[in-house]
Every structure is written in structure tokens, then in C-alpha cells.
Amino acid sequence: MSAAWRGGWRQGLAYGGLGLPLAFVALPLYVILPNHYAAEFGIPLATLGALLLAARLLDAFVDPFIGRWVDGWFTQSVRRVLGFAAAAAVVLALGFRGLFFPPVDGGNALLAWCFALLAVTYLSFSVLTVLHQAWGARLGGDEGQRARIVSWREGLSLVGVLVASVLPSVAGLSVATVVFAVLLAGGVAWLARAPQPRIGAAALQPPSMTEPLRTPAFRQLLLIYLVNGVASAVPATLVLFFIRDRLQAPSFEPLFLASYFAAGALSMPLWVRAVSRFGLAPAWLGGMVLAVATFAWATLLGAGDVTGFVIVCIASGIALGADLSLPGALLAGVIQRAGHGERLEGGYFGWWNFATKLNLALAAGIALPLLGVFGYAPGAQDAGALRALTIAYCLLPCALKLLAAALLYGLWIRPRIESTPLKATS
């Protein structure tokens, strides 16, 4: 087992490597699976939507319980934690394969199979995700170290998204499921060679699952994270509509998406350097300001503005790097200062992941109905419909980002400046 975190690339890959297959599996589950079941098996979209929504709600609400389980595992031994990780990885790989290649081909049996496999796959995915996040938080360190740890995890996750966006269409779903299983096995093996997290002693009385919510700093950070997350999820939900109808450039979708995710991954070192100079919270505030400026400028784009939208994708991808690498590092600091280190990391990240999934649901629940109210439907080209699409894709995220920035400054940065004016805000 490796020693403490020293910041080298070998340690970064060893810890962050599991993020790649976890991100790899997320894209097919959320994007490819619905179309696959509709096209291959003729499942009505309404039925499929209800089934997917039920499975995702179940997944979101079980996250806080998963966090408590993970905290229990970390009171035993690293070997025990790795054993649970390996078991969850096997279940995830088998569930992922089984979803795309079911043994039944129609009727209620197929729907039951799909729901059961979705529940199992989401559960194992969430177990690995919370375990991975808690492992990183238990490595501790100052602001810079926490930012580097999270950046390795999230940067490799973006690489996983890029691979998942290309491989199924190039090599087919069968090959993609095999590659995923290999990457997942490699991720767990790399984790065994990563810096060792601290193992906490078992509490005489297990902490309440809601104990993290009793920490004022966590409630504040969670509120900021939730508002900012909805602001980021709205354009992610609407981007394909904007590309196809506002820009009329569907053939450039791969270029736009690749620019966005590549910029996010490549920007991670820049945000780590910003943290060392300005602190975690001010750097995150800078990312929010960049996102607002980017989407405000995107309102000027119209049909055929491919170059302009590539610039939007790159700039918003850089802002994404801040959203991915900095809030998790702030959370690790909250856990340390609350005295919950080596005890409740899983609990905190369970609620954190619940909020992450709630962001996606709220974004769809806000943006899509608003578009319908203001007269937009996919394929519409009249001026009113395109104006509604532009407002929802560009200006709504700006308003939400500005609210998140105000909350970050008012609830987090300003109180810490007033109490410790000479120290970096963490």
C-alpha cells in the first residue's frame, strides 16, 4: 500500500483512475440506453421514461444510506474497503452488460428485467462513487492538496466521458461493455496502489445518517452547490436543442461536445494553480463569473455560428473544470473542520451525490416545461420559439449562476474574510 499523498502523477493516476470507468458507464446509462430500448425492443417512450425516472429516484434517495455503509467499511481496514469495491465493480460490470443484452426480448418480462438491472447497476455505481470520494477526502491535506486530489478524480472522469461518447458508436455496444469491465477492474486495482486513507475507529454509537446536515457550513455549501449545479445542468439538458435548432449545426455536435469536455479536463491544473494563489472559494467564484460571461455572449449566436459556439464550449468547459474540482475540495475541508474526519466522509458524500442527482432532475423539471410554456418544440424555427430556447439555454443559467455566486460570496467568502482577513478562504 502506498504512503501518504505526495502529489506525483503516479499517485494521481492510482487514485483518480477509478473515475474514468465510473464516468464511462454514466453516459451510456443516461443517453444511449433509452434510445437502445426504444429502437431495439419497441418500448414506448412514455413507459421507458417512467421506468427510468423510478430507477433514478430510487438511486438518488439511497445515496445517504450508502454513505453510512461506506463510513462503516472505513472503520475496519483498507483491505476490507477494497473488497467491497471489488464486489461492487463485479456487480456493476455484469449489470451494465445485462442491461444492453437482456435474455428476454419483449413484454413485461423485459420491463421487469430492465428495472431490476437498472436498480442494481445504479446501486453498485453509487457505492463505488461514494467510496471513491470518501477515500479521497480521507487523504486530507491543505487547500492545494485537496484540489489536486479532486482534480485527478474529476479530470480522469472527463476522459471517461470522452471515451464513452466515441467507443459505442465506433466499436459497438458489445465491445464497449467489455472495455468498460476491463477499465473498471483496472480502476479498482489502481486504487489498491493509491495513497492509503486513514482508517477511523468504530464509534460506540453509529452516527445518525442526518448528522452531516446538522453542520451549518455543510448546509451552506450544499445550498450553493445545488443552485450552481442546476445552473450547470440546464444548458447540459438543452445543448442539443440549441445546436440543432438555434445554430442549425447538428453535424458539428461531436466537435462541440469534445471541445467542452476536453477543455474541462485540461483546465484542471489551471484551477489548482488558481487555488494556490487565491484560495478555493474565490477560485470557484471566478469559475462562476466565467460561465456567466460565456453564456451571456452565447445569446448573440445564430444559425451557422460554429466557430463562435466552439469558443463557448471551450470557455464553458474551463468553467466546468472549476465546478468539478473545487466544490468537492471545499467539502473535504468542511468535514475536517467539523471534526468528522475519519468518521463521516461517506455520510457527507452520500448527501452530496443526492444533491448532484437532484440537480439533473430539477434542471429538466425547470427548463423543459418553461420551453413548452413559451412555445418552443424541437425542430421549431419561428422567431418566438428560438427566442425562448435562447433564454432558457443562455439567460436562465446566467441568472442561476449569479444567484450561486451571490450565495457563495455572502454565505461563505465574506464571513471568512471578516473573521480571518489575512487567511485564504477555504
Q: What labels would you give this structure?
A:
single chain; 426 residues; mainly alpha; Growth Hormone, Chain: A; 79% helix; 0% strand
The CATH topology of the largest domain corresponds to Growth Hormone, Chain: A
Order of helices and strands: HHHHHHHHHHHHHH
Q: At the first level of CATH, what is the class of the largest domain? A: Mainly Alpha
Oligomer: single chain
Number of helices: 14
- Alpha-carbon Rg, integer: 21 Å
Q: If you average the pLDDT, what whole number results?
A: 87
Low-confidence segments, given as residue ranges, are none
Distance between the termini: 30 Å
Corresponding CATH superfamily of the largest domain: MFS general substrate transporter like domains
Outline type: globular
Structure, described:
By secondary structure, this protein is an all-alpha fold. The chain folds into two domains: 1-199, Up-down Bundle (Growth Hormone, Chain: A), CATH 1.20.1250; 208-426, MFS general substrate transporter like domains (Growth Hormone, Chain: A, Up-down Bundle). Helices cover 79% and strands 0% of the residues. It contains 14 helices and no strands. The mean pLDDT is 87.
Summarize the structure.
It contains 14 helices and no strands.
Could you give the topology of this structure?
Layout: H1 9-16, H2 19-41, H3 45-73, H4 78-100, H5 107-137, H6 143-171, H7 173-192, H8 216-246, H9 253-266, H10 268-278, H11 280-298, H12 306-337, H13 345-373, H14 383-419
Helix pairs in contact: 1-6, 1-7, 2-6, 2-7, 3-5, 3-13, 4-5, 4-7, 5-13, 6-7, 6-9, 6-10, 6-12, 8-12, 8-13, 8-14, 9-12, 10-11, 10-12, 11-12, 11-14
